[in-house]
Specification:
Layout: E1 4-7, E2 10-13, E3 18-24, E4 33-39, E5 46-51, E6 58-59, E7 68-73, E8 78-83, E9 92-99, E10 110-113, E11 117-122
Parallel strand pairs: 2-11
Antiparallel strand pairs: 1-3, 3-8, 4-5, 4-9, 5-6, 7-8, 9-10, 9-11
């Protein structure tokens, strides 16, 4: 069982940066692949980034590649999403998730999800 709590969202202008954090409970954080997803009104939940257990590998869709960076600190049971050059289309609720399956995990492989944090980018 894993509990995930996201934080760091807010309202920013286009071009600004935000860093999201996801704090995980327990002492087995390093056993999980971690990912970030987002969901905007009227859209399906969308993959944003994933990171391997040790943090040595990352994976991004083209929509955020070069702008977003996922990282993790296993000693702190925390995963981060650094978001730069934010665009209005990045506006969504951002969710942290944990998976125990093979790398890279697919959307349905994520077993645990946080409550989400709102990111709003104004134009």
């Amino acid at each position: 069982q894993v509990q995930l709590v996201e934080s760091g969202g807010g309202l920013v202008q286009a071009g600004a940066s935000l860093r999201l954090s996801c704090a995980a409970s327990g002492r087995t954080f390093s056993n999980y692949y971690m990912g970030w997803f987002r969901q905007a009104p009227g859209k399906e939940r969308e993959f944003v980034a994933s990171i391997s257990r040790s943090g040595g590998s990352t994976y991004y869709p083209d929509s955020v590649k070069g702008r977003f960076t996922i990282s993790r600190d296993n000693a702190k049971n925390t995963v981060y999403l650094q978001m730069n050059s934010l665009k209005p289309e990045d506006t969504a609720v951002y969710y942290c998730a944990a998976a125990s399956s093979s790398w890279p995990p697919l959307k349905y492989n994520y077993d645990y999800w946080g409550q989400g944090t709102q990111v709003t980018v104004s134009s």
